[in-house]
Design a protein that fits this description.
The complex is a heterodimer of chains A (445) and B (374). Chain A is built from 15 helices and 15 strands. Chain A is an alpha/beta fold. In chain A, strand 13, helix 11 and strand 14 form a beta-alpha-beta unit. Chain A is elongated. With 374 residues, chain B is an alpha/beta fold. In chain B, the strands form three sheets. Chain B has a seven-stranded mixed beta sheet, sandwiched between helices. Chain B starts with a strand and ends with a helix. The chains are: A alpha/beta (445), B alpha/beta (374). The interface between A and B is large, with 77 and 79 residues. Strand 11 of chain A pairs antiparallel with strand 8 of chain B, so a sheet runs across the interface.
């Protein structure tokens, strides 16, 4: 790197008496003691007066980020470096009380993930750059531009929030603390997430409107119930260490997929064939459709499978639209279905709602469970006791097998092969659904 | 052949393009990209992260990319809205980033499991100041693989965020694809690095107005200054000097200068056609099918599928328009969002919009329009 100092000398660009340059001076001392390679240090700044610190940084990298998001950027930098890079990079986040609250989810997330990131929270109890407005860290009765008669809202105890977020190193102090450089040194040396909250003065607004001095910061902390000093120093494994222990740095890559294999089964799909399969979510409707698509693939066909379900996962309807074709398939919807297979009332209701039943024509093969209501259709549905014969979870596959036998386009052997490929040792139980089903005896009356 | 979804091939395409960092937050219909990256990245020596929200996901990716690692995230409309500030940051800091936006019905939470093409202008116009983000739009699973690679190529080449704009139907529909045939490309080249031995460099000084600056990683031996604030060539905060304004102008100029190279499209032109059908994404499949059906009945129509939406692929449009006296644009949104983008480039030809909401536009809705003479 350049041989520049860690932090450039001077007080600017800050107001006389501002706490920010005091923290920078302490940071300079801490970095000097640690004697890191400046190339391994990145100062990641947030927005606000604290973000102006970039101009004071000498030899380390600087990344000036967005309001509140600094710790999320720093987490990405640190984790990527730990797993993919040098493993030496130490991002140090400089953020104010405003940034810490708008970005509190990032701080909590970083504390939980535990990357090698140090966060220095410059808490001067208000938004300085924008004119001294109250922040979530303003004490009760604190006078700010937006709380002229004193703040009514209890302040957030940020250090405690981060303790609760399992941050392994948490410290809090005031700018006048002689131990500040040592606290910062400990935080940076810590192998994971570390946070130091520094209570400080904003001389542009806070001291103008409140009877507050540097010496009074400890008293303010006491009144607010803030413990000072190292609140936790209890290293725990970092995310990166856990990741590398589990995965190593292996780079074997994905197993190459099989190149196009010749069709294993003969098909009789003369033209693009659209099949709509409808049932209830959680009853393997989409799995049954996929098995048919896989069977088609084993016959050398093109296939598409468009699935639809409500946003819920295990309830409501589940519909798959399959197209099988010897030519590449363009539109993946089905304008005129060649087959409609319905295994539950949920499925039938959705097909009616979506207009699929209205598109059933005289040439459509309709297979339906014997127990469900269907509106009048231009064809007589093939009614079978799918659910009671095969069970609800295999009824859709039984419907697919019924279609396969009736339409004669995809051989049962291809379906059985698809089932075997997918289910392996468990295939036998599933394949039972591929056997023919006897019609239910017609009910008297 | 494999039966595979567009989301899965988006992830595999990203891996083949050298993506080694993914930070995700689940949202239908994009979650399969996240899950596939989580499953696949370890064996590629990469890192996948579960972010606590979409802002964290995008910011972590930018952080990784600042360190020189190819990074991607995936989301849908609501999550994309949360990422916009970070995407702007990537524009300003000239940090490569690929964002997969798998569209669903909007506005707001909309319909999580309902496809749509309603975010096409949101993706493009989310940057204050009018800077173009390259947007690629796959129409199917194989396209996802190919175009996410293009997204990485141009993201790296121009140091810019790039959006891969698919939708529920493209992302989640399973298709038979010859995946082995796709998996032959090596990773596209990376961002141009600073000269070896460089000790000091101005991180935002560029070789010329049409090129991004040279790159050095945060954490590398050369000191880097990155900033989302307006800056001079040295990276110093400065808001309106001529140098700063020149840098801002170059953010757009570097995109414009490479627009023709970025223009990806597929055509099926018919001799003597009076009508050109233009479409993109999932609607392009129905539009092409409609074109083929009416051609089989003797109508002469040409078809243009745009794979690059932004920068507007004017170079692909020109030859397709020749001889046509009418343009039909097919897209699945309320008002024909992209048709409005194309209109100024049609040489005054009448434009018909075929739009739809709540389901894929079927070929049968397009055919009668194509049957009419221009």
């Amino acid at each position: 790197m350049t041989g520049d100092p860690w932090i450039l000398p001077g007080a600017g660009p800050y107001c006389k008496g501002c706490g920010h340059p005091l923290v920078l001076r302490a940071l300079d001392e801490a970095l000097a003691v640690l004697a890191l390679d400046p190339a391994d240090v990145a100062i990641v700044t947030d927005i606000g007066c604290v973000g102006l610190a970039d101009s004071r940084i000498g030899s380390p990298h600087t990344v000036h980020t967005m309001h509140g998001r600094s710790s999320a950027f720093a987490s990405g930098l640190a984790l990527a470096d730990s797993v993919l890079g040098t493993g030496r990079l130490k991002p140090i986040v400089l953020v104010g009380d405003g940034g810490a609250t708008i970005g509190i989810n990032h701080l909590i997330g970083a504390a939980l993930l535990n990357p090698d990131v140090t966060v220095v929270v410059h808490n001067n109890f208000l938004f300085g750059m924008t004119g001294g407005q109250s922040s979530a860290l303003s004490p009760v009765d604190f006078v700010t531009a937006t709380t002229r008669e004193g703040n009514l809202v209890s302040p957030l105890d940020l250090a405690r929030v981060l303790l609760a977020s399992r941050a392994p190193f948490v410290a809090r102090t005031v700018t006048g603390d002689r131990e500040l450089p040592e606290l910062l040194r400990q935080a940076i040396a810590h192998p994971g997430f570390a946070v130091v909250e520094v209570l400080e003065l904003c001389t542009a607004y806070a001291t103008r409107w409140n009877p507050l001095t540097g010496a009074g910061l400890r008293e303010l902390a006491e009144q607010a119930g803030y413990e000072l000093g190292v609140l936790r120093d209890d290293p725990r494994p970092t995310f990166a260490a856990g990741w590398l222990a589990r995965h190593g740095r292996a780079t074997t890559g994905r197993a190459k997929p099989a190149t196009t294999s010749p069709a294993r089964f003969h098909h009789d799909v003369a033209h693009a064939t659209g099949i709509v399969l409808a049932g209830t979510a959680g009853e393997r409707v989409q799995t049954a459709a996929t098995l048919l698509a896989q069977a088609a693939l084993l016959c050398g066909l093109h296939a598409t499978q468009k699935n639809d379900n409500p946003v819920t996962q295990g309830t409501g309807f589940s519909v798959s639209e399959l197209i099988l074709s010897s030519e590449p398939i363009l539109y993946t919807g089905i304008e005129r279905p060649d087959a409609v297979l319905v295994t539950s009332a949920d499925g039938a209701a959705e097909l009616a709602r979506a207009g699929v039943l209205a598109r059933v024509g005289p040439g459509t093969l309709v297979v339906a469970d014997a127990g469900i209501e269907l509106p009048p259709l231009p064809v007589e549905p093939l009614r079978l006791p799918l659910r009671s014969s095969s069970g609800p979870k295999l009824a859709a596959l039984a419907a697919v097998a019924t279609w396969s036998r009736s339409a004669g386009m995809i051989p049962g052997a291809a379906l059985r092969a698809a089932v075997a490929d997918r289910f392996g040792a468990a295939a036998e139980g599933v394949a039972a659904a591929l056997e023919p089903i006897a019609p239910a005896p017609s009910r008297p009356g | 052949m494999e039966l595979v979804s567009g989301n899965r091939l988006t992830a595999l395409g990203a891996l083949s393009a050298g993506c080694r960092f993914f930070a995700g937050y689940p949202i239908t219909p994009s979650s399969e990209i996240y899950q596939t990256m989580v499953a696949e990245l370890p064996r590629h020596g990469g890192l996948a992260l579960a972010a606590p929200d979409e802002i964290s996901a995008a910011a972590a990716c930018v952080g990784a990319s600042l360190g020189g690692h190819r990074a991607m995230t995936a989301t849908s409309g609501p999550g994309f809205c949360l990422m916009i500030e970070t995407i702007q940051y990537a524009v300003m800091t000239e940090t490569p980033l690929v964002v997969c936006l798998v569209q669903r019905l909007g506005p707001s939470t909309g319909g999580a499991t309902q496809g749509a093409q309603g975010d096409v202008l949101l993706a493009e116009h989310c940057v204050s100041g009018g800077v173009t983000i390259p947007v690629f739009a796959p129409a199917g699973a194989a396209d996802c693989y190919r175009l996410v690679r293009a997204a990485f190529e141009w993201s790296e080449r121009l140091r810019t965020p790039v959006v891969l704009l698919s939708d529920k139907e493209v992302g989640m529909t399973l298709e038979t694809v010859d995946v082995a045939a796709l998996e032959n490309g090596s990773a596209p080249p990376g961002r141009r690095a600073v000269a070896p031995g460089t000790t000091r460099f101005a991180p935002y000084r560029r070789p010329c107005s049409e090129e991004p600056p040279d790159f050095a990683p945060v954490g590398g031996p050369v000191r880097v200054i990155a900033t989302g604030s307006a800056h001079d060539g040295e990276g110093r905060l400065s808001k309106s000097s001529p140098e700063v304004i020149e840098i801002l102008a170059s953010l757009q100029r570097k995109i414009d200068a490479h627009a023709a190279d970025m223009a990806l499209a597929q055509t099926e032109l018919a001799a003597g056609a009076d009508t050109l059908v233009v479409s993109y994404g999932v609607s392009a499949r129905a539009a092409l099918e409609a074109c083929r059906r009416v051609r089989a009945r003797g109508r002469r129509v040409s078809f243009l599928k745009l794979e690059t939406l932004f920068p507007v692929p004017v170079s692909a449009l020109g030859p397709a328009l020749e001889g046509c006296s009418r343009v039909v644009v097919v897209e699945e949104n309320l008002t024909g969002l992209y048709a409005g983008v194309l209109e100024p480039h049609l040489g005054g030809r009448p434009l018909q919009r075929v739009t739809g909401l709540g389901g894929m536009i079927p070929p049968s809705r397009i055919e009668p329009i194509l049957e009419e003479a221009a």
